[in-house]
Each structure stands twice: as C-alpha cells, then as structure tokens.
Write a sequence for this structure.
C-alpha cells in the first residue's frame, strides 16, 4: 500500500474558485491484482494537509492498520492539527476518528504541529502503537500514548417472541414472598 501526500493540492471551493486544501492519495493493493485508488482532501485552506503522513499500526486492534495525517498550519489558531484515520476492510475510513491539536508549553513555539510524525512504535511497551508529533524549528516533541480500546456488544432475545396479553397466568416455583 502507498500513501502520497500533496500538501499544495488545490480543489474548487463552493464558489468555484481554486483553494489550496491538500490531499492524500491512497493506493491500496488488491489481492486480485491492481490497485484501488482513493483520495482524502483537507478540510481547510492553507493548512498544508498531508505535509506528513505516518503509519500507526493497528491502534484500535480491529485487524486493520491506521494512519496519521498532519495539517501543520491547520486549526482555529493555525498552529497545526493531526488527523487519525482508521483502517477497515474496504480501505481507509474517510472521516477521521480523532483530531489532535497542537499543544505546546510556551507561546513562543512556532506553529507547525505535525510537521514531523513517527508512528507504529510502542514507546511505553503496553502492546499498543504510540505516535510522536514534532514541529518545525523546535527541539520538543509530543508523545501520544495509545491505550486499550474496550468494545461492548450486547444482545437482547425475547422468548417467546409473541406474548398473549390474555394469558394472565404466572407461576414461580420455590419462591416465598412476605409482606
């Protein structure tokens, strides 16, 4: 599989004018041969969506690999965003499951959170891949630690499936009720 970043990609906005939004082209190899090509466009102009892309491994332990895509000048304050996309059987989910915002300790730090990414490394040795995010011109990085995901599935079965409202007989064996 191949992920190609085009941070200067331009697309037509709703007004018909070209806008720089960035794009990731995803080339997934198929077992039958050939490639399935899909594209993810950025969400805001001049954010440089796809400046860096990192494989994350299987964050949610669903059997499909996930990726991180940075927009180092994205967000309300233009300090940078990193989008987490989850893999699935048909490819990559087109909607990010999580968006990380640039969070630096001092205001003197430059924008560009996500300028560099390193994923698929289990830094804390808990069995889940972590993500390291850096910015341009700083000697600091942020470590995002992955943790276990709990999935709960419940089912309700009614037996019999149809109840007769006319049948008012109810019996409980070996039950004593006192008032």
């Amino acid at each position: 599989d191949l992920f190609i970043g085009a941070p200067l990609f331009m697309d037509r906005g709703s007004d018909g004018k070209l806008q720089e939004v960035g794009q990731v082209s995803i080339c997934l190899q198929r077992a039958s041969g050939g490639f399935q090509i899909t594209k993810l466009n950025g969400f805001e102009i001049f954010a440089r969506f796809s400046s860096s892309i990192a494989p994350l491994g299987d964050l949610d332990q669903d059997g499909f690999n996930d990726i991180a895509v940075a927009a180092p000048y994205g967000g309300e304050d233009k300090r940078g965003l990193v989008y987490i996309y989850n893999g699935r059987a048909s490819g990559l989910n087109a909607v990010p499951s999580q968006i990380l915002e640039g969070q630096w300790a001092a205001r003197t730090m430059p924008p560009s959170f996500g300028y560099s990414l390193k994923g698929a490394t289990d830094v804390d040795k808990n069995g889940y891949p972590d993500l390291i995010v850096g910015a341009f011109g700083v000697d600091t990085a942020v470590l995002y630690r992955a943790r276990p995901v709990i999935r709960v599935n419940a089912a309700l079965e009614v037996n019999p499936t149809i109840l007769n409202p006319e049948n008012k007989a109810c019996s409980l064996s070996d039950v004593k009720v006192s008032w």
Observations:
- The chain has one domain: 2-144.
- Residues 172 and 179 are 17 Å apart (CA to CA).
- The first strand starts at residue 2 and ends at 6.
